[in-house]
Task: inverse folding
């Protein structure tokens, strides 16, 4: 884990203080560093064939490429009451994994005052959507003179704990006004009749509202329908208070007619893009801002291979991007998609396994992102090719499944054993600076804890360090299995045949040079035993992996002159590459190193917090002809799928 040695009391005090300062203290649902692409949701025109949802994707927020040959990705006839939909707005839900889309249920061929309904859609993959129609006029009494319902959008109202849908409505004799109502739990209907959300002080009509929150302030961008129509903004700290501060300035940077303003944040920056539909010209204008008040035109930086109308842009993760591409194909001009980090989210200390039982690869990491390394559960991920990883959920929860420790779930390892013709999986883990073991019949659990710590004290003669970072290695020459562990020392003991106890009298300390810190990992190749370990502190940008070679799983270890396995790549912004494991492709002399690093690109600016906001990456591990290890250059590209 790479922490400086400190007492348990101090650790608890620091953890308590950290939690007091940061009430969450837990990983975010979606880590901002994992938002690496964008989805543009739009329609294209005023014929019924064009009034449908279309998708485009971008890697940088500036260059967009349509999907599905610019054809609809959802059939309007199946989801609407009019046969057409317009003004798509998409939102990522508060849980990070549910998506909400709302649409104007309308085809312009029937007239601009022809619609009374909106369409609500819900998805967990951006590909498959469940839809409902909400007709305001027929659902809520008193709307007999309702003329139109336009441009619905959704925002999560944290104060109410609900999803607010807001939209403009016009009744006969009155102006368009922006109303709101909360969606029901299933996002299939409105809980109650619409209420007024916003009316300009001048009482003029307003449509096409778009709300974004920044630093606790909600910014409502809207089109005012005055003698001089245009885009304006109003702000509030309470969505339903009715207390809005209006900015009298027009925000559009053009004299052309505009509508459909939409704002999104550029990934990994403090910049926002405000875009709006210049509908008489058939194109968008893009502007950039940091304060949501002053805007600079960036049209020359923008490219699209389609002509959108009123839509929205959603930052998405690589796995979400891949799901879209799997469904509708990758545009030829779309840039390369990186495969590192291998796992989305904050994870560290990865253990990799190829399971003979399933023919799949698995990664077992520390669940990172908790303040002060305060995680308490372990997850697993599976893959057929070492590139595309499926979350398998929590496989061991200290608070629920372990009686002897409930904190600091760190640095697991696992071994597959065939015992009496049956595969079993022995999962060794750190908890409260002790090492335990849990057992399962499957690589994804459920795992049953043995009921006590396997290692709870330092080896004889060792005065400093922690009992953490287990590694298990089975010697192919003898069939014996060994448990390695330690921080500031490399401990080892032979495991009994039951794999959940240590053979008495076999515990020893293997001598390593001063570069040894933690994270022992042992492999066997061509008659040699390779010992790998991490140097420095996991909070240090210089955290790295070194190695030595031995003729025995118990040492002594010979250290090559150039013994760095992997270290940071400053030119690529990659730092603190350490605590690794290694996997060999079955029946091939093909090896891969799985390791953690500071989260990219944000980690290097986090200070000590970078040490518990780490991510897992994979690169190829190669050997020289003389058996020494070629130094691995860490990459963003990662590896190609392994067959």
Result:
């Amino acid at each position: 884990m790479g922490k400086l040695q400190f007492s348990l009391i101090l650790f608890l005090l620091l953890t308590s203080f950290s939690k007091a300062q940061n009430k969450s203290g837990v990983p975010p649902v979606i880590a901002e560093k994992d938002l690496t692409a964008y989805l543009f949701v739009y329609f294209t025109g005023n014929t019924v064939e064009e009034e449908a949802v279309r998708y485009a994707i971008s890697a940088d927020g500036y260059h967009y490429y349509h999907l599905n040959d610019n054809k609809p990705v959802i059939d309007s006839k199946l989801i609407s009451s009019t046969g057409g939909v317009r003004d798509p707005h998409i939102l990522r839900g508060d849980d990070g994994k549910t998506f909400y889309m709302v649409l104007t249920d309308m085809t312009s061929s029937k007239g601009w005052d022809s619609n009374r309904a909106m369409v609500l859609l819900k998805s967990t993959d951006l590909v498959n959507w469940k839809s409902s129609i909400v007709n305001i006029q027929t659902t809520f009494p008193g709307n007999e003179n309702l003329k139109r319902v336009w441009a619905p959008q959704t925002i999560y109202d944290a104060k109410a704990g609900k999803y607010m849908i807001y939209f403009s409505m016009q009744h006969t004799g009155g102006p368009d006004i922006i109303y709101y109502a909360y969606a029901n739990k299933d996002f299939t209907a409105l809980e109650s009749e619409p209420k007024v959300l916003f009316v300009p002080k001048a009482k003029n009509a307003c449509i096409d509202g778009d709300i974004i929150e920044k630093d606790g302030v909600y910014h409502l961008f809207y089109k005012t329908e005055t003698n001089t129509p245009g885009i304006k903004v109003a702000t509030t700290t309470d969505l339903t208070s009715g207390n809005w501060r209006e900015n009298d300035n027009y925000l559009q940077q053009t004299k052309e007619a505009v509508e459909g303003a939409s704002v999104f944040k550029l990934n990994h920056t403090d910049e926002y893009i405000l875009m709006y539909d210049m509908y008489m010209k058939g194109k968008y204008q893009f502007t950039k801002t940091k304060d949501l008040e002053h805007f600079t035109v960036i049209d020359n930086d923008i490219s699209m291979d389609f002509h959108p109308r009123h839509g929205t842009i959603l930052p998405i993760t690589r796995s979400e991007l891949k799901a879209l591409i799997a469904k509708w194909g990758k545009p030829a001009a779309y840039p390369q998609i990186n495969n590192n980090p291998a796992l989305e989210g904050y994870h560290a200390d990865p253990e990799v396994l190829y399971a003979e039982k399933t023919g799949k690869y698995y990664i077992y990491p520390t669940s990172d992102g908790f303040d002060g390394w305060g995680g308490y559960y372990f997850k697993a991920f599976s893959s057929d090719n070492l590139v595309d990883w499926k979350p398998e959920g929590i496989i061991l929860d200290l608070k629920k499944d372990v009686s002897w420790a409930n904190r600091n779930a760190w640095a697991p390892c696992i071994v597959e054993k065939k015992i009496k013709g049956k595969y079993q999986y022995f999962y060794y883990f750190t908890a409260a600076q002790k090492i335990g073991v849990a057992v399962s019949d499957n690589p994804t659990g459920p795992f049953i804890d043995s009921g006590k710590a396997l290692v709870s004290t330092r080896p004889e003669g060792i005065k400093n360090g922690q009992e953490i970072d287990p590694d298990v290695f089975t010697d192919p020459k003898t069939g014996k299995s060994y448990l390695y562990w330690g921080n500031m020392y490399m401990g080892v003991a032979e495991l009994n045949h039951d794999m959940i106890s240590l053979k008495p009298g076999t515990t020893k300390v293997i001598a390593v040079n001063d570069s040894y810190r933690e994270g022992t990992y042992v492999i066997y190749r061509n008659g040699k035993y390779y010992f790998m370990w991490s140097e420095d502190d996991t909070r240090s940008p210089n955290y790295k992996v070194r190695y030595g070679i031995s003729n025995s799983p118990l040492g002594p270890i010979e250290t090559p002159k150039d013994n760095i396995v992997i270290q940071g790549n400053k030119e690529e912004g990659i730092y603190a590459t350490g605590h690794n494991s290694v996997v060999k492709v079955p029946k091939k002399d093909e090896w891969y190193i799985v390791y953690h690093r500071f989260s990219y690109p944000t980690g290097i600016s986090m200070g000590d917090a970078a040490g518990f906001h780490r991510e897992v990456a994979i690169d190829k591990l190669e050997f020289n002809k003389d058996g020494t290890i070629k130094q691995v250059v860490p990459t963003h590209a990662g590896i190609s799928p392994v067959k």
Remarks:
- The chain has two domains: 32-328, 350-621.
